[in-house]
Amino acid sequence: MSYDENNIFAKIIRGEIPCDKVYEDDHCLAFNDISPRAPVHVLVIPKGAYVDLNDFHEKASDLEIAALMRAVGTVARMTGVSESGYRFIANNGIDARQEVPHLHIHVLGKRDLGGMVGRAPFED
Ligand code: AMP
């Protein structure tokens, strides 16, 4: 899938629409999810144009990949969830129901997050 320069997170990175910023560095931006599913629900995104983790894995530099993981850790510390526990999720593609075609990691916490996915255990 080619990158859509007009996706909503691309517009946030370009400053064309606002976000509730939590953290920013040279490679990453983190902001509160507009429709939070938990008391802490932050989206951590690379500033580079990557559709999803597949795209990121193929094209991003080691520096960008390290920076994204470090940003997740920083956001977890800043929001206090590194103490209480948290989940990070990156939805990729159709089966994961990815809505925004710019890689983003959801950092969720400050409540019991329940089971890993919202279905009974998989049986073939
Ligand atoms: P996903 O299903 O993983 O693609 O999740 C996309 C997420 O982006 C959802 O949790 C939305 O609530 C969130 N979202 C969409 N638009 C915005 C926005 N303008 N600012 C912050 N979060 C947004």
Structure, explained:
Strand 2 (28-32) and strand 3 (40-46) form a beta hairpin. The model has no long low-confidence stretch (mean pLDDT 96). This protein has a single domain (8-109), classed as HIT-like (HIT family, subunit A, 2-Layer Sandwich), CATH 3.30.428. With 124 residues, the protein is α+β, with helices and mostly antiparallel strands. The protein has a five-stranded antiparallel sheet with strand order 1-2-3-5-4. It has helices spanning 8-13, 53-59, 62-79, 81-84, and strands at 21-24, 28-32, 40-46, 86-89, 105-109. Helix content is 28%, strand content 20%. It contains four helices and five strands. The structure holds adenosine monophosphate. Adenosine monophosphate binds at residues 8, 19, 31, 33-35, 43, 91, 97-100.
Structural topology:
Layout: H1 8-13, E1 21-24, E2 28-32, E3 40-46, H2 53-59, H3 62-79, H4 81-84, E4 86-89, E5 105-109
Antiparallel strand pairs: 1-2, 2-3, 3-5, 4-5
This protein binds adenosine monophosphate (AMP).
Adenosine monophosphate is lined by residues 8, 19, 31, 33-35, 43, 91, 97-100.
Q: Indicate the radius of gyration in whole angstroms.
A: 15 Å
User: What's the rounded overall pLDDT mean?
Assistant: 96
CATH topology: HIT family, subunit A
CATH superfamily: HIT-like
Order of helices and strands: HEEEHHHEE
Looking at the overall shape, the CATH architecture is 2-Layer Sandwich
Cα-to-Cα separation, first versus last residue: 29 Å
Strand content: 15-25%
Heteromolecules bound: adenosine monophosphate
Q: In the residues, how many domains can be counted?
A: 1
Number of strands: 5
Top CATH class:
Alpha Beta
Shape: globular
Major sheet details: 5 strands, antiparallel
